[in-house]
Design goal:
About 25% of the residues lie in helices and about 30% in strands. By secondary structure, the chain is an alpha/beta fold. The chain has a single domain, classed as Rossmann fold (3-Layer(aba) Sandwich). The chain has an eight-stranded mixed β-sheet, sandwiched between helices. Helix 4 links the parallel strand 6 and strand 7. The longest helix is centred in the first third of the chain and has 14 residues. The N terminus and C terminus are likely disordered.
């Protein structure tokens, strides 16, 4: 993560100072059916679990970052710069922050200045969830919790990835060119689970298989 800028050196503005009307942050077209509002709603926490949790988390935030917002990543040391680039996220708008001795302090610091935050859910104690959720709402930010532990933390929306299937490997030859994942949405705001099959990164349509196969030739598992 050395390619990312140091958080203390970045000029940022509080997310709460943005236009009140900008309540929903955009997501890739392939992901919009998973959101009643059509995108990520400010003030909410979103959980991503399952075998493709990290890839889905990056897919959820990619469009917002491309369109000019800033992303802070807290504690996810295994999210490499290569993985971010392959998801279409510009590194110049990403910072990596260490949780240090207090995740609450680290989360509070990034939420004071960043609109979108990804946090390793394994670092969050249940006693800290309520305080972090309050800060997310007060700052009008969006937090994506990544990892298996996110299923045990109550979030506004909970996504679980299932049955990842790679394509491209033949009888001992070839290379991985695409991955199809089943995504299930649940949570407090979902009366019944919603499922959708996606190709990740999700800037590609789940329908246009040929385009996905060609464009995803450099995919790597994250």
């Amino acid at each position: 993560m050395a390619a990312f800028a140091d958080i203390q050196s970045m000029p940022v503005r509080p997310a709460a100072s943005l236009a009140v009307g900008e309540r929903v942050l955009p997501v890739a077209d392939a992901l919009t059916p998973l959101f009643p509002e059509g995108g990520l709603v400010r003030g909410q926490m979103v959980g991503c679990g399952g075998p493709a949790a990290r890839s889905l988390a990056l897919a959820l935030v990619a469009r917002s970052i491309v369109e000019g917002r800033w992303l802070a990543i807290v504690g996810c040391d295994d999210l490499s710069a290569e993985a971010l680039v392959e998801s279409g996220i510009p590194l110049r708008r990403v910072v990596s922050a260490s949780p240090g001795r207090s995740l609450i302090d680290a989360a509070g610091a990034v939420l004071d200045g960043f609109e979108v935050v990804i946090i390793d859910a394994a670092l969050i104690a249940h006693s800290a969830v309520h305080r972090i959720a309050q800060r997310v709402r007060s700052r009008d930010a969006v937090v994506v919790l990544v990892g298996a532990a996110s299923g045990g933390v109550q979030t506004d929306i909970a996504f679980t990835t299932h049955d990842p299937a790679w394509e491209g490997i033949g009888w001992g030859t070839g290379r991985l060119v695409a991955r199809r994942v089943r995504v299930e949405r649940a949570g407090r705001r979902t009366p019944r689970p919603i499922t959708r099959d996606l190709w990740l990164p999700a800037q590609h349509s789940a329908i246009d298989v040929e385009e996905v196969t060609a464009a995803a030739s450099r995919l790597r598992m994250v």
